[in-house]
């Protein structure tokens, strides 16, 4: 290969690397492989736009796990796919039509859906390009789309099966309704934020009495649909009125006063207006007490004919007019400022309206039981474990799932109606209704041939809850399904723990009899440096592709991992990407240095190793063991920091500097190769490029084998002491501002064995610590003292500031005293002694002895000063 360029240029390398991986089919696993499988299903990106930093974090984690498992001997599959994202995609395409002064109705259903398919193809290609630029090892040969013909058949099959089982039903229930999207929404598709509002106190005249019951409401316009006033049965203020009625202002209707323990006597006035068609809790009250349901709103949130003169008015304009009319009638008692939760559509951000609507639902109680049980038994583990409580709470209180959406883009509900015998005004009747994967030729009830399909589509999540198995050939027992299902790990954000995670577990057990995965890793959310949610409106949400242009994909990947704690939100700053870029440059320069002395052959450890070689191999062993433990716990941030410190400080700053003084054979190249393999999951592009430049044995680092610890590196060496001495001497030089070129004479007092070690390391000590002569006797005159457990080092300084040196040593004594007391406290604590193992206690005692010995040496040094 060409000579190593002096600088690392990610732009000229990354695309070539990815093309090379694709050309050699490295991301396409073989279902016939004898290797154990490891499968991750990508959380499907929506075909609604570009990827975000959140996607970059989420997919980087998956890529790290996939590459690590591949290197450790698994047949890895990272399933690629995209979600049709029903409501989100339709909103975007409708917005584009509006820019052309068009509505979807102008095109009609068929042509509008064609427009959405065009959008899908355009943006699917953008998403593919972005994922490739990040270096993700996705299997593109198995790519899936939730609205493809094959996938759609599976979605419809599931609907029909659940309907036949009696777990899908149609009913009129109150739902979250978006007046902009003109569709029902699930609770999880609604965003709620606290906002400033008003609490209106309205007088309801008691029938036949010259007095009132005052109610408090935040939505006075809905009083037009009131059918009762409700009070607590034990509220003495209202007990005498229970069973009587009030006169509903403006609408001139008599409505009853009922009693229910649901009412909170402490809120407002303790009297509640009941609007069954426009409030979730009022709906339940009305069902319980047999109240009338009056719908006062059209689908677009304008008021309807049931409101008399308010017909066709916008809901907020109607609110102002209701308030004015109540004031004129003398029935508005007062208003108060009030903080209230405002529920909005997560896609178009329009305030939603609770609305009674005929929708299709899935019964969730039976489905939820295996999902609860499998997590309780530990068969599916959630990481971090604290999310288990949230998961359990939702499933234990699960409500039936509204799965119908009043959209055009999506899986059309496979329900057909006979125009001859179906009665739309009889919601309980099944006559004239056929649920089938295919359109029936005639009605099985009356033989009629005029059959129409339900216009609604299924909730997007009704297709994505099948993702882990529908993509692998189910319902057929395909080779992929047998080998790669169940999958192993799911990586996702905690915000879709209900929408997706819990439902996938339900679907896995219901349709395959198996859990869909074993581990769920929830990663934190990305926020800006101020802790704010990232958004385009705030201008704090950079495009990952722009960041790659400036820093490179590896710098972005590593930088994000370095700042991603396990259980806290990520506070993103571009400074972290600069850290990632500098690390890549450091690795590149180190590799370039080693390449100059590379023999061109596969590096094999020589039979004779220097103490420095044994030391670096031992440090590498420690890193390998730590990383293995961190991977098992999904602590990728800890791995990133561990690798960063080892490569930058231990390998580059120490070992490579040492071998410039004491040459080494093969070991630098051997260690570098192991490091490239370990680093590869985090920074795949640069590690592949360096690997290729050394022409190592495999055609790609992706096909390498994860390193094993080197047994010969287990023996102890004096290098740690030499390194510590150099660090301490450098600290003294910095404290007294000694010029780097000025050589200091050192005096060491130690044992004969350590004296021999220091003599052997003389060249390294002198070069890296800036020493002249090294004498093994006690000095005379003014010196700076370095007291270590195994030796005392004195540096002869001209013009030493005695007071400054005493202050430095006194600070060391104070720090040591604190550590000594801390360890003594632990060793004298019965609870600690009981819990700690023998090895831990011995290690702590050894640390205590070392600190005491060092403290005594420093005290002697102060006396000498």
What's a concise summary of this model?
This protein has 865 residues and is of the alpha/beta class. It contains 27 helices and 28 strands.
Descriptive keywords:
865 residues, elongated, 28 strands, 27 helices, single chain, alpha/beta, four-stranded mixed beta sheet, four-stranded antiparallel beta sheet
Structure description:
The chain has 865 residues and is an alpha/beta fold. Helices cover 43% and strands 18% of the residues. The protein has a 4-stranded antiparallel sheet. Strands 9-10-8-11 form a 4-stranded mixed sheet, with helices on one face. β21, α14 and β22 (519-523) form a beta-alpha-beta unit. It is elongated, with a radius of gyration of 36 Å.
Topology (SSEs and partners):
Layout: H1 10-23, E1 37-41, H2 53-71, E2 75-82, H3 86-99, H4 104-107, H5 109-133, E3 139-145, H6 149-164, E4 168-178, E5 183-185, E6 190-205, E7 212-217, E8 228-231, E9 245-248, E10 253-259, E11 271-274, H7 280-289, H8 315-329, E12 332-345, E13 353-362, H9 365-376, E14 381-383, H10 387-396, E15 401-402, E16 404-405, E17 415-418, E18 433-435, E19 451-453, E20 457-458, H11 461-464, H12 467-470, H13 479-484, E21 489-493, H14 497-512, E22 519-523, E23 526-527, H15 544-551, H16 553-562, E24 570-571, H17 574-596, H18 611-632, H19 636-659, H20 667-679, H21 684-694, H22 719-735, E25 744-750, H23 752-760, H24 762-769, E26 771-775, E27 783-788, E28 791-796, H25 802-827, H26 830-835, H27 838-864
Parallel strand pairs: 1-2, 2-3, 8-10, 14-22, 21-22, 23-24, 25-26
Antiparallel strand pairs: 4-5, 4-13, 6-7, 6-12, 8-11, 9-10, 13-15, 16-20, 17-18, 17-19, 25-28, 27-28
């Amino acid at each position: 290969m060409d000579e190593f360029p002096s600088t690392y240029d990610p732009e000229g390398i990354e695309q070539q690397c990815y093309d090379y991986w694709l050309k050699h089919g490295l991301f396409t696993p073989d279902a016939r492989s004898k290797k154990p499988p490891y499968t991750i299903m990508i959380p499907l990106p929506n075909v609604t736009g570009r990827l975000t930093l959140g996607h970059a974090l989420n997919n980087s984690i998956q890529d790290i796990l996939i590459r690590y498992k591949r290197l450790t001997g698994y047949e890895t599959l990272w399933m690629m796919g995209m979600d049709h994202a029903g409501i989100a995609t339709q909103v975007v395409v409708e917005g584009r039509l509006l820019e052309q002064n068009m509505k979807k109705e102008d095109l009609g259903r068929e042509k509008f859906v064609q427009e959405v398919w065009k959008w899908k193809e355009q943006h699917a290609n953008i998403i593919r390009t972005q994922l490739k630029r990040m270096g993700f090892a996705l299997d593109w040969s198995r790519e899936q789309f939730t609205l493809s013909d094959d996938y759609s058949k599976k979605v419809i099959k599931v609907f029909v099966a659940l309907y036949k089982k009696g777990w899908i039903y149609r009913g009129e229930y109150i739902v979250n309704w978006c007046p902009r999207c003109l569709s029902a929404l699930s609770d999880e598709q609604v965003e709620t934020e606290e906002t400033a509002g008003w609490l209106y106190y309205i007088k309801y005249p008691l029938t036949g009495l010259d007095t009132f019951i005052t109610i408090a409401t935040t939505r006075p316009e809905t009083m037009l649909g009131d059918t009762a006033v409700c009070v607590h049965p034990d509220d003495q203020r209202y007990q005498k009125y229970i069973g009587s009625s009030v006169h509903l202002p403006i609408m001139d209707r008599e409505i009853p006063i009922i009693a229910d323990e649901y009412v909170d006597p402490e809120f407002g006035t303790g009297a509640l207006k009941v609007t069954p068609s426009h409030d979730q809790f009022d709906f339940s009250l009305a069902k319980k007490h047999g109240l009338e349901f009056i719908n006062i709103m059209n689908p677009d949130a304008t008021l309807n004919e049931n409101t008399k003169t308010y017909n066709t008015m916008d809901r907020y304009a109607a609110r102002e007019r209701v308030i004015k009319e109540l004031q004129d009638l003398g029935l508005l008692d007062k208003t108060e400022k009030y903080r209230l939760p405002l529920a909005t559509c997560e896609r178009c951000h329009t305030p939603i309206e609770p609305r009674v609507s005929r929708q299709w639902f899935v019964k969730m109680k039976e489905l939820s039981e295996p999902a609860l049980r499998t997590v309780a038994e530990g068969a599916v583990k959630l990481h971090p474990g604290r999310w288990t409580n949230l998961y359990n709470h939702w499933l234990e209180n699960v409500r039936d799932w509204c799965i119908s959406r009043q959209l055009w883009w999506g899986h059309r509900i496979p329900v057909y109606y006979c125009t001859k015998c179906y009665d739309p005004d009889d919601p309980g009747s099944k006559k004239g209704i056929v649920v089938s994967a295919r359109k029936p030729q005639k009605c099985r009830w009356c033989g009629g041939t005029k059959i129409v399909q339900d216009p609604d589509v299924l909730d997007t999540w009704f297709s994505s809850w099948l993702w882990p198995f529908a993509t692998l050939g189910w319902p057929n027992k395909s080779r992929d399904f047998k080998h790669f299902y169940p999958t192993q790990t799911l990586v996702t954000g905690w915000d879709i723990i209900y929408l997706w995670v819990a439902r996938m577990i339900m679907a896995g057990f219901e349709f395959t009899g198996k859990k869909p995965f074993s581990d769920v890793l929830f990663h934190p959310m990305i926020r800006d440096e101020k802790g704010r949610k990232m958004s385009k409106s705030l201008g704090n949400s950079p495009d990952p592709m722009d960041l790659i242009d400036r820093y490179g994909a590896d710098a972005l990947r590593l930088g994000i991992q370095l700042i991603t704690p396990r259980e806290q939100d990520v506070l993103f700053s571009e400074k972290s990407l600069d850290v990632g870029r500098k690390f890549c440059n450091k690795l590149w320069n180190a590799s370039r240095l080693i390449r100059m002395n590379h023999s061109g052959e596969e590096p094999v450890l020589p039979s004779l190793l220097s103490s420095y070689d044994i030391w670096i191999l031992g440090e590498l062993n420690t890193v390998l063991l730590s990383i293995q433990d961190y991977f098992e716990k999904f602590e990728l941030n800890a791995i990133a920091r561990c690798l960063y410190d080892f490569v930058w400080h231990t390998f580059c700053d120490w070992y490579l500097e040492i071998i410039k003084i004491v040459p080494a054979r093969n070991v630098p190249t051997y260690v570098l190769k192991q490091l490239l393999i370990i680093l590869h999951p985090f920074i795949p592009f640069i590690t592949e490029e360096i690997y290729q430049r050394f022409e190592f044995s495999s055609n790609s680092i992706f096909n390498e084998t994860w390193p094993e610890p080197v047994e010969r590196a287990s023996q102890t060496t004096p290098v740690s002491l030499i390194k510590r001495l150099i660090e301490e001497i450098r600290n003294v030089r910095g404290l007294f501002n000694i010029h780097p070129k000025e050589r200091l004479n050192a005096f060491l007092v130690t044992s004969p064995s350590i004296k021999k070690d220091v003599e052997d390391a003389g060249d390294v000590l002198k070069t890296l610590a800036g020493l002249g002569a090294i004498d093994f006797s006690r000095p005379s005159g003014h010196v700076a003292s370095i007291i270590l457990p195994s030796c005392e080092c004195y540096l002869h300084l001209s013009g030493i500031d005695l007071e400054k040196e005493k202050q430095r040593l006194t600070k060391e004594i104070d720090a040591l005293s604190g550590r000594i007391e801390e360890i003594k406290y632990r060793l004298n604590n019965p609870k600690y002694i009981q819990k700690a193992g023998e090895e831990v206690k011995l290690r702590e005692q050894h640390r205590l002895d070392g600190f005491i010995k060092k403290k005594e040496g420093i005290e002697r040094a102060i006396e000498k000063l």
